[in-house]
Amino acid sequence: MKNLFLITTLLSLFAFAACDDDPKTTNNANNVNNVNNVNNTNNVNNANNVNNANNVNNINNVNNGDPTLSIVVTGDATPIDFDDGSTGQTPTNYFMGLQRFDLMQSAEDPSPVVVFDYADAYVEVDMSTSQTVATVNLLDLPLGLYTHGRVLLTMTRFDVQTTVHTTMPPAAIPGTVSVVGALSDCTIDGTPRTQDWAEFTFNVAGGITRPGALPGMPSTGGGTIVREGGRTWMVFPLSESLNILPTPGSSKTATITYYTYESFRWTEQDEAGYAVGTFDTRDDGTHEPLTNFGALDYAITIE
Known about the structure:
Layout: H1 2-18, H2 24-64, E1 68-76, E2 87-89, E3 92-104, E4 113-117, E5 123-126, E6 130-137, E7 144-165, E8 172-182, E9 186-188, E10 191-193, E11 198-202, E12 208-211, E13 224-228, E14 231-244, E15 252-259, E16 264-266, E17 280-282, E18 290-292, E19 297-302
Parallel strand pairs: 1-15, 7-17
Antiparallel strand pairs: 1-6, 2-16, 3-4, 3-5, 3-7, 7-8, 7-14, 8-11, 9-10, 11-12, 13-14, 15-19, 16-18
């Protein structure tokens, strides 16, 4: 009955306005506008209510968290046996510079998917521990089945124990040598360096710094080293394929493991004063020939 009364009233007002030319016509029009304004206000409020509901949903999505892919780098110094004829020691204060990580659909994928890229910078990863270098939203990555990953290595720095042999007494000084090297064209400690640059600082007698050379990083069953255009890439097969589907899945962690036990290795030389098991060097910067630095093997697991 209320609706019928309202309709009848509105029709009466309309009829009255149609035959009346005085200013009341304007007022009646305003009344209609007011009704519309009320409706519009309600519509706006309804729209706001919908938006508020969406905002709550968005907050819940953030709180629940989209599936992510975390990239973790870890050093593993678990003892292993060697039969390579070289002597070795495990470096200390050992860091590797990582600039970029890609996902690949094959070992020869011509169009890798960039997961993270620090551009002209890089992150120095402490090889004595585990470190998350990046976390990305899985939903931001292109759909596909990925079987390999690759890491762009920029630099390294580490310390090893040495004995420096001099031409003046004392004839042999035990100490450490700090090594820093460029695996790719990059900037180290504020100075641009080209691939293969290296420097050895013998921390004896006030410090002796000499240019040096590092052996090439080895390809292993766990990873292949690819050098191109002033860059050093390490290409890994994934422990299990990473399938990024249209529907959200669970979060994943890709762990890159570097096996570092006695990974600094050299060939013993039979010279006066040199001792087996000691990395022997001279004050002119020469040293026993290096056969390996960095990791002895690599692995990347997806969990």
